[in-house]
Amino acid sequence: xxxxxxxxxxxxxxxxxxxxxxxxxxxxxxxxxxxxxxxxxxxxxxxxxxxxxxxxxxxxxxxxxxxxxxxxxxxxxxxxxxxxxxxxxxxxxxxxxxxxxxxxxxxxxxxxxxxxxxxxxxxxxxxxxxxxxxxxxxxxxxxxxxxxxxxxxxxxxxxxxxxxxxxxxxxxxxxxxxxxxxxxxxxxxxxxxxxxxxxxxxxxxxxxxxxxxxxxxxxxxxxxxxxxxxxxxxxxxxxxxxxxxxxxxxxxxxxxxxxxxxxxxxxxxxxxxxxxxxxxxxxxxxxxxxxxxxxxxxxxxxxxxxxxxxxxxxxxxxxxxxxxxxxxxxxxxxxxxxxxxxxxxxxxxxxxxxxxxxxxxxxxxxxxxxxxxxxxxxxxxxxxxxxxxxxxxxxxxxxxxxxxxxxxxxxxxxxxxxxxxxxxxxxxxxxxxxxxxxxxxxxxxxxxxxxxxxxxxxxxxxxxxxxxxxxxxxxxxxxxxxxxxxxxxxxxxxxxxxxxxxxxxxxxxxxxxxxxxxxxxxxxxxxxxxxxxxxxxxxxxxxxxxxxxxxxxxxxxxxxxxxxxxxxx
Length: 569
Fold this sequence. Notes:
This protein is mainly beta. It is 9% helix and 58% strand. It is built from four helices and 38 strands. Strand 22 (288-298) and strand 23 (303-307) form a beta hairpin. The chain is rod-shaped.
């Protein structure tokens, strides 16, 4: 056989020798094939399927072959095409150039890699492809300048940047790794993920293509164009059903509202969100902050509630009001009007005003704080009580206070007793800085006040009138008193003052021991008033029936003859 080949060579070009040698090499490769238990052939050496031209290049390597024109290789189920290549049989490696196409059929899930240059190791089954690299399968397309592909593990990775497209979702990063069997990407450094509904910017991202699940570690920003934005340093986001879990320094911003928490959970389809630990909700437009350790949001029902060490802060330039209750609900309507409801053991503190009640409401529509169930408010020397108290604010400062039904204002007068003003309703007026300077009692007004001649007390007046107006001094004590209507009264000389009970108007009880003296006192618990079980039952019914407002219930109570918000028991 060898002699015949040599004889033909004398009449033909040396190209035929190369063909014969190539045939011999291919026969050796076939002989090296092994059979598995199923009888399928597994090629261990790279197999040359086709080349327009082959050259044995001993000057380069004793086992080097130069292949040109429509070159095709086959190895371990993978087909590789190129314009030209160097094949090194002894090391089972190859270098390929121009129009690289690597095809790895896997049923319908075929992966194809294209590029300009290829270096492949048959023993390790590893390919390095660079320049204009595109890797595609049935779900995604990746473009990069340089990629490494471990065909045995079916893992591809890059170190110099890549862009990936999966449907309408695009991803990019400096470094990345794609685990094809599990359909997972691992992205690192300057990671960006974009879709029509959101944009993610992070340092580290693990993305599961099959589950549409993005997991991130490190500083991460998530933005919905024209809508919400989110920041966290750990968490995951399901881009398919938009369920998300954000952890570590988590915050979500929507319009003028921002919520902070250690952990945020959100289900966009169900419209439900939860916040855990160190929860803080800030409304910059209304200068309102709400804090707690657990928060819940239901977009369908249209409300949010916060509980566990709940605190609401209404800020102002001169003073801030700090309010605590067991549970705080907020509602924001289509006009961006926020309503706040606070239940169970409410206390509040500011430099000028303090108070307590069982339940409270506040609306940014009218900026009125309404206190229900045994409310009491203190302002400097004065104590204000009624069945219901309404505190009208502007710029988060008090402007007017309305004591509705059974209203009483009292202040101590040295050791003699208390100045008192009583009426069916009382209205108080504030100057800037929450300074109460005038009060007006209407309908069956009564007053008890101590009269002076200079600095000397001369007696105590007990008077009645249709209406009574009292002006207060700079230290909030009774000063000028005006009776409107048909006044009547009696003056008791100092030496002939009646007993303390006789000097107290009906309904007056001095409650200084309940007063918050500092901000932290708002967290101190106190005994609920009688009928608290019925109060809680009513609150629960209000929630179940669709959040009837406090105002509605107050009106119903009045119509039923129960006297405002008093419990029927």
